[in-house]
Design goal:
CATH architecture of the largest domain: Alpha-Beta Barrel
CATH superfamily of the largest domain: Enolase-like C-terminal domain
Number of helices: 14
Number of strands: 16
Strand content: 15-25%
Distance between the termini: 43 Å
CATH class of the largest domain: Alpha Beta
Order of helices and strands: EHEEEEEHHHHEHEHEHEHEHEHHEHEEEH
Number of domains: 2
CATH topology of the largest domain: TIM Barrel
Length: about 400
Amino acid sequence: MTIPKEMAIPKELRIAGVEAFPIRLAPAGADSGRGPSRRDMQPQDVGQDYFISSEGWRSIYSRRHETCLVRIEDDTGKIGWGEGQAPVSPRTVASIVEELLRPMLLGHHPVDMEYLWYRMYSAMRERGHATGFYVDALAGVDLALYDLVGKRLGLPAHRLLGGRYRDRIRVYAGIGGGDAEVVANSAREHVENFGYGALKLHVHAPNREILELLSAVRTAVGVDVELMVDVHGTRDVSGAIELGRGMQELGARWLEAPTLAEDVHGHTQVAAALDLQVATGEWLRTAWEWRPWIEGRAFDVAMPDIARTGLTEGKRIAGLCDTFGLPVAPHVGGGGILSVAASLQFSAAIPNFQILEHSHGAHAHKAQIAHTYPLPEQGAFVVDDTPGLGVDIDEERVRALAANS
C-alpha cells in the first residue's frame, strides 16, 4: 500500500490523551427492536433506571440507551472515537479505561493496535479478568485507535483490516413484542417500507406462542423473507430442539442463543439435532473463549459483538471461524452508533460474513451523538471510503451527556 507523503504517519507519533465518556440517552419512545419487549418480561425494577424479569434468570435491561465512548488523541491533535458496549453500568467501563488502560496507552504509537490490545489484555488475564467489562473497555480503546489511524491516513478501517470483500453489508431488522397482530404488522412495515429481506424476533414466550408469532410473521411477509428467532438463552436443550423443529417447518433461517450462555455442550446438542442454523456467541469476547465452541461445533453461525471484541480480536475470531468453514453474523444488540459503524467496517473486511444485526427503530436515536453516520438503504449499508469508522462525533454533545450521566 502506497501512502501519500502528506498522509504518512510520523515515526515519532504518540498517544497523548485517553478519555472515556459514559452516556445514557433518554428512552427512545418507539419500540427499538433491541431485545424482548418489557410487557413480555413482567419486569421488576432494579434501582431507578434498570429492570429485570421477575420470572426466570434473565438479563438486566436499562430504560435508557447506555454505552461508553472512548476518545483517543495523538500528540498532533488528531482524534479517534471508539465504543465499549455497556448497555448497563457504562461508568464501570469508563473507570477501567481511565484508571487501568490509559497509563498503558500514553506514549505509545497509535498504529500499534494489535500489540496494544494484547499488552492490555495480558495485564489482567492472570487475575481472572479475561472477559466482561475489562475486555469491553479494551474494545472501546481498540475501535478508537482504528478510527484515529484511519483518519490520519485518510482510509476507512476496513482497509486497515486488510481490504474490502464487499460493497454492501446486508442487515436484518430486530423486532420485539408479544402480540401476533402487532408483530406481524411491524414485520410487514419493515419489509414493504424499508426494504428488509430478513427479520429477527426477540421473544421469551413459551414455544407454542413463539411459533404462533413466527407463523403470523411468515404469513405477513411471505416466503422470500428470512426469519430468525432469538430466545436469549431461555430454553433447556430439549425445549430448544422442540422449538427449532417447529421453526424449521415455517422455513426459519436460525435459532439464536437457544440455551444458557455457559452451556457449550448443550448448544452442541441443539446444533446437531436441527437442520436450521444455530447462531450464538455475543457473550464470547476473545478467540480463547470462542475456541471450544468452534472446535465442538456448538453453533452454525458465529455472532461476535465488535464493541465487545474490538476490531483486532474480532478479526482473529473471524479467521478462526473461517478455518472451520463457519460464517459470521456480527451481533450489535444494545451497541450505539460507533458499535454499528465498527461492525460495518468489520463485516466488509472478512471473507466469511453472512449478515449483520440492525435495530431500525433505534438507529437515529443512537446517532444523536453524531453529526454524520452510516444509514441503511433497502436492507443494507453501502460501504464507502469515509476515513476511520465513518462517524463524525458531536463532541460537545457527548461531553454534555457524560456530565449528566
